[in-house]
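Sample 1 of the test manifest.
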Amino acid sequence: MSDTLMSDIPMVHADHIVKSYGSHEVLKDISVTVERGQVACLIGPSGSGKSTFLRCINHLESINGGRLWVDGDLMGYRQRGDKLYEMSPKEVSRQRADIGMVFQSFNLFPHMTVLENIIEAPTRVKNVKKQAAVATAMQLLERVGLAHKAKAYPGHLSGGQQQRVAIARALAMEPKLMLFDEPTSALDPELVGEVLDVMKGLAQSGMTMIVVTHEIGFAREVGDALFFMDEGVIVESGDPREVLANPQHQRTQSFLSKVL
Amino acid sequence: MADTRATPAPASARESSTAPIKAVKLRHPLRTTFAIVIALLVVVFVWDAATRDAYQWPLVAQYLFDRRISQAALITLVLTVLSMVLAIVMGLVLAVMRLSDNPVLKAVSWTYLWLFRGTPVYVQLVFWGLLGTIYRSVTIGIPFTDVEFFTAAPFDFINLFWLAVLGLAFNEAAYMAEIVRGGILSVPRGQDEAARALGMSWQQTMLRIVVPQSMRVIIPPTGNEVISMLKTTSLVTALGFSLELYARTRAISSQIYATVPLLIVASIWYLLVTSILMVGQYYLEKYYARGVAPQRALDGEPIPTGTVAPGTANAEASADTDTIPPPKGEHR
């Protein structure tokens, strides 16, 4: 396939997504399209379903309705004719390997050093040679400004440093899409900046990113698209600067008046 | 002194500096009295024991390093280690089966636990001893037809030592399964998610991420089980194996008509082996504590500001998940 044809396909295309836990519907008919190289920010009150939606994208949560494509691939299922077939865990893992994810609570592996954290997945999942993986890992650590911490255990690092390592760990898999689940919410205020700086650099390098965040400033400055979610639906979306400056919907207005 | 206003302290005490505090230590009169009473009781007991003929100390000294007994102690240790290793492996498998999504594996694991925890180990050992009698010969063939492939007497080939190892391990595996399960559930949910988000398979996630972290929680109660197993080996006479420590000392004591001194000899050896096992546990715990709090103290590295204690952030995130509290390790 040629590059021009490839780039016509959006990176993420979510079509009428429904997700429920028992009788509780968390996501009600979510449709989102994120183009290649875009930075999409998801904002909204807690419990609005932002994080759940993010976790549906890499199939950490399975969806109950709708269809979700990442880079043209249907996530978690294979379609033959009208029928959907569940993918095997192995196939799902393969799909996930191309999607990086950064968590609110970092989730670094505490029993491994920073370097071991980063080379774990490339060497085990993609069978990269250890030497090559270490070289890539050191480059990534350089990029997030933590090369000198390669041999430290995550427990020795500050929250901001841990989150930067977590970003490097996700990047080591050379993902085509990065998901950020409130990456700065667990950080002390003075550490938020260093993580946002790394994310800005990543956005400038052309990475497609979906960011669930409460950092309105980041959304305004870096975001290409903004989605405001409440009670499992997307209430409002558009260019971040326009939506933030001039919210149309009453729920958006009341939310923004509280966080700004 | 009734004056509640800030009383000006004498000049010497008021001047504070960074010099180390010199203060009169708080006295604990009750503690001291109690210690003296206990010390006296111990002295009385030891004096009495040393002079009491029933203990027959010369016999204790004579048999303590008897070759038969030190050999039996070695066999006991080997029996303990082999059956524990097998039990830990089986327990790990059973725990993972219990936690898997597969209902068949879950049911098999549950039934195993129900059976082997629900019957006394002594009864189980007697059964193991009788297996050779119960299954005199086993025929492999197609049921309800005359087709037979071969007939064998499986328990003719297995000696009593290995039967004892199997008997002890099968029982212990049921308990180890629960210890391992508790350990696995103590690992924050976020760890599993992070690994899966990186594309790691379930097996890789378990072996590389979850199980190594659960070790810290698994080891203390497992140490408990090892020491408990050391003593449970004294029950294997139930299946006819009589070369371990307790059976050996009993045999000798019945030959020389002296029960008490040989019980003391056996106890000393059990204590010795337990002490060796405890040292091993200490080093294992130290190894699996790497990357967690105590290491910081070892390195003498200052804690950077804004540090999130390992696990706390994860623990908060997983506070709403169904984790059961890790089993408390006891050191006997």
